# Entry
Amino acid sequence: MTVDDRHPGAAEAAAQLAGLQADRAALADRVVQPWWYDVALGLLLFGFLASYAFDSLRVTFAALVVFGAGIGALVSAYRRITGVWVNTPPRFTALWGAVVLVVLVPALVLSEAYDQHWAMVVAGAVLGIAAGVLSRVFGRRWAAELRSGSTL
# Structure
C-alpha cells in the first residue's frame, strides 16, 4: 500500500504544490527589471536633485515635472513588462531613508546656507547611483525570494 492509496489527495496536493513552485520560478524570472530601468531611475533622481544647482525655481519645477513623468513611465513600463508591482519592504525603505538623510541634508545645508549649489549635483550623483544600485539589489532579492519561498 502506497502513500497515495492511504491518502488519495496527496498526489494531487503534491502536483499542485509543484505547479505553484513552477509558477513562482516563472514569476521570479520576470520580476527583475531590465538594466535600463535602474539607470533611468538613477538619472531621473540625479537630474531632479542637480537642478537645484541652478538656484532657479523654474528650472527645479521643470525638473520636478520631468522626474514625476519619468517615474510614472518607469512604473507603467515595469507593470507592463512584469505584470506585477511590489511594495518596498520596510527595511529597504529605512535603508533608503538613512542614505538620503546622510547625503541630502549636508548638501542642502551647503547649498542653501553657504551658497555652494554644486553640492546638490554631488548629492544627486550619489543618490542617483544609490537608487539604481538599491533598485537592482531589491529586484534580485525579490526574485531569489520567489524562487526559494522565503521572505525579504
Summary: The CA atoms of residues 111 and 117 lie 4 Å apart. The mean pLDDT is 90. The helical segments are 3-6, 8-31, 35-50, 57-82, 90-113, 118-148.
